[in-house]
Amino acid sequence: MTLLIARRVALSVVTVLLATVLVFTAIQLLPGDAATQILGQNATPDAVATLRGQLGLDQPAIARFFSWLGGALHGDFGTSLVSHQSVGAEVGRALVNTSLLAVITIVVGITLALVLGMVAGLLRDKWPDVAISTIALVGMSVPEFVVATVLVLLFSITIPFFPAVVVAGQNATIAELLPSVTLPAVALIFVLSAYIIRMMRTSVIDVSDSEFVRTAVLKGNSLGRIVFKHILPSAMLPTLNVIAMNVAWLVGGVVVVESIFNYPGIGTLMIQSVQTRDLPVILLITVLSAVVFVVCNLLADLISIALNPRLRHSRSAR
Amino acid sequence: MNTTEQVVGVDDLTVSYRTGSGANARQVDVLKNVSVSLERGRVLGLVGESGSGKSTLAGALLGSLRSTSFISGGTVSVAGNDVFALGSAELRRFRINEVAMVPQNAGNALTPTMKIREQIAESLHGLRGDKRAQRERAEELLRLVRLPNPRAALDRYPHQFSGGQQQRIGIAIALASDPTVLVLDEPTTGLDVVTQAAILDLLLDLQRSRSMSMVIVSHDLGVIDKMCSDVAVLRMGEIVEFGGVRQVLGSPGHPYTRGLIASVPRIDRPGIPPSLDHQALDADAEWVQSDEVTLRVAPVDAPVVLSVRDLSVDYRRRPVAGTGPTVQGVSFDVAAGEIVALVGESGSGKSTIATTIAGLQRPAAGSITLAGAGAAAGAGRRAAGAGGGAGSAARGGGAPLAATVARRSKAERQAVQLIFQNADTSLNPRKSVEAAIQRPIDLFKVRGASVAGALSDVELPGSYSERLPGQLSGGERQRVGIARAISAQPQLVLADEIVSALDVSVQSSILRLVDTLATSKQIGFLFITHDLAVVRAIADRVIVLYLGRIVEEGTVEQIFANVSHPYTRLLLDAVIELGDEHSDTLEKVADEVPLAPPEHGCPFASRCPIVRDVCLTVTPPDLAVSETHHITCHATLPELIHEPAFVAA
Ligand SMILES: Nc1ncnc2c1ncn2[C@@H]1O[C@H](COP(=O)(O)OP(=O)(O)O)[C@@H](O)[C@H]1O
Ligand code: SF4
Ligand SMILES: [Mg+2]
């Protein structure tokens, strides 16, 4: 089993590396670079060439990649080509803001989704199930930018209760941001939980129909014991992977939703940086996204191993 | 306490479900006006074909129905409770105190994510909160059901046990609450004969020592006969006969009971029994089932189609100290039109041998040679490599088959066809019967074969070609599986447990079909089964396998006569048949097969009653009882003689 985990970790490192190479290449293929973006349309070729030299853009791409990689391995992700600040510090600030949004979304979203999925599954075809399933179906079929836009319209125009669009800039403190987190979080939770609810409902129903749950009922067990000891552990297993996939999706969803609400996080920074071809910033964000993605899947696997005795104990133990 | 106190009373019970909607809505009765009763300390058997409502009735005794079913009449009373009138709290108390159920297939009935200890402790209501006492009692219960190493078992999970062990654990859990009535749904179906015998003996012991009342559901008349004092025979939701077991099974009054009894194959009677004729029965209530059996005639001097020499298969990635390969040194022939049975308990390597012959598993050593057309095509291709002495038995001058299907020629693949146990999982549910049968015909460009012809060969109406597998009964699906195999016009068919999941009456109709096809089309059959009565009915020759080694080989008469390998004898003794004395319990041998064969000596040494020192170290020699009857054993012939399993008629 240790071997299995070691293999998964190694694979994860490779995945992260590949993602960086891919993004680096993609940026090279885009027309224009940071120098042309900074100087604008009318810059003279000389000026562009000088700036390129200052920014180090005249080096061959491969050399630049390895020098970046060497720095990255020591925790130095370079300086922004645009703001000339340390990329680590700039991305770090945005990361704190995004983490606030992400943590709230994940904690509230997953808990809510699991509870709702379980309730729907246990009360199959009764009205709570119908209501929950309908909401989940809407969440699955409507993309996040639509949800976000509807929320902006609804709250900024009809009921201006929550701040719909964030006015605080990149340097806002957490206290300033907290009220503005609500609407982006609602939009993300809505979409994030839809798939988890569906999956949880289906697997609770499957497990409830199984012979071992019937046996648990016929033993005269209490409802609580049947649900929490007999149904839940087995029902969680297939749901875990869906949770991991959706949390990983969050990385992309955040970009879209943040930019609609103008929330000063990683997503907004990412879009700005792509516009300015600010390669070091983009690369760090890529690495971070890949790490989140890989860690989510790794965690899901580890929890499956913890929940599933079949994975923990091989058959030969008989 | 009054000895004739009634503990179970089912009175005029009708259980139904609704189907269809709108104008097509109708009510279907799963049980119709069922009445049975049971006195304290007695054992009631519920017998009938699948779908007759046995499990429904058993569940009703615990107040449990399928979610879509409902009671549309009658009452169920158990230990003084009107079961379906109980409120939910009372129902829980009733299930805790009065009844327990060992469900069909205990493997699925144990919660996979909970330790055995916890699952037993749930039923130890008297010891609630006292962890140590619970542990001790749980261990005691596991010892009672003779689970090996009960203390260590407590902290294991269900998947770490074999099927037989899971069944024992299921029984231990049911006994934990010390129920007034114990309900067992098919307690031994799917288990090997020796395990079955051991579990039934155990249950009878427990029942007698605790004077417990039991209800046993089974489709196996032998099991019912051995275990029960009373029996109810169900057919399509109705009780056709109810009474003392000796009376009902000894001199059945209802034609259905008579037909059911006549369709059971037996080890003490050769021949394929007749099938129940439901149409005749429905048309005429007084109809009498003929008990004429179909006698199989073995082919004489037929050419060999398959010859297997010194076959070994090894699943181990690296050698494990003290164990040998899964299959070792297996040699046998199958002739054209001959049915050779391969018997042994689960895990004995039967399916491994079949899949290796089919080229789906790579052998570690040995050769597989196919005679005739299939091999001729291969012979040219590998002329240089052929001609190893091993292949000489195949008179057609065949060459050894390549180890994997991918490297076999089309003709070779066409010549060997496989049929599986579960026709429902081996047929694509979205493809019609026609598509399933047409595929091999197209693939092998078989001349003169057609779907209609194949369907008529397996005695199905031509209109069935339109159907999907889901619209067929179990027996019909198995017929389609056979049709698909024979439409390729093979020389050899590997039939893996093809009748194990069928009711006896359907089973004998499939056996008659195999008999006909083997003879009329001169197809050799390697017929894999764990059921000795089926072997007796269908086989010409028998190979007995234990832990992947052949222990005995002979004609069907020789195998069932009075000189046997100790393992064959154990199997024969373990068979439970209708009308047996049922008095002598099986000699106390270890009833669990070891996990892996030993590296040296006789594979059966750990369980053999006449084991000697040499058996542990030296591979047993071939003891030729006659030219066709071989036993692999260190013992002398006189030691292997026993009472014959049947008296010749
Ligand atoms: N609620 C239900 N809905 C549909 N079919 C049912 C329902 N309850 C029972 N049946 C059918 O009734 C028949 C009897 O079932 P069962 O009691 O399981 O029989 P047995 O145990 O004798 O095989 C089967 O054909 C089963 O599929
Ligand atoms: S060889 Fe020895 S152990 Fe094996 S069956 Fe014969 S007597 Fe028993
Ligand atoms: Mg049943």
From TrEMBL, chain A:
CDD domains: TM_PBP2 (cd06261)
Natural source organism: Subtercola vilae
Keyword annotations: Cell membrane, Membrane, Transmembrane, Transmembrane helix, Transport
Domain ABC transmembrane type-1: 95-300
One annotated Gene Ontology cellular component of this protein: plasma membrane
Similarity-based family: Belongs to the binding-protein-dependent transport system permease family.
Gene Ontology biological process: transmembrane transport
Primary residence: membrane
A Pfam match: BPD_transp_1
Compartments where located: Cell membrane
Residues that span the membrane, as ranges: 9-30, 100-123, 135-157, 177-197, 239-261, 281-308
UniProt name for this protein: ABC transporter permease
Membrane topology qualifier: Multi-pass membrane protein
PANTHER family per the UniProt record, alphabetical: DIPEPTIDE TRANSPORT SYSTEM PERMEASE PROTEIN DPPB-RELATED, PEPTIDE ABC TRANSPORTER PERMEASE PROTEIN
From TrEMBL, chain B:
UniProt record, GO biological process: peptide transport; transmembrane transport
Keyword Nucleotide-binding carried by entry: yes
The protein's name: ABC transporter ATP-binding protein
Entry's family note: Belongs to the ABC transporter superfamily.
Alphabetic keyword roster: ATP-binding, Nucleotide-binding, Transport
Sequence ranges assigned to domain ABC transporter in this UniProt record: 8-261, 308-572
Family matches, as PROSITE patterns: ABC_TRANSPORTER_1, ABC_TRANSPORTER_2
SMART domains referenced in this protein's UniProt entry, alphabetically: AAA
Database matches in SUPFAM superfamilies: P-loop containing nucleoside triphosphate hydrolases
Organism of this sequence: Subtercola vilae
One MF annotation (Gene Ontology) recorded for this entry: ATP binding
Pfam families attached to this UniProt entry: ABC_tran (PF00005), oligo_HPY (PF08352)
Superkingdom, taxonomy of origin: Bacteria
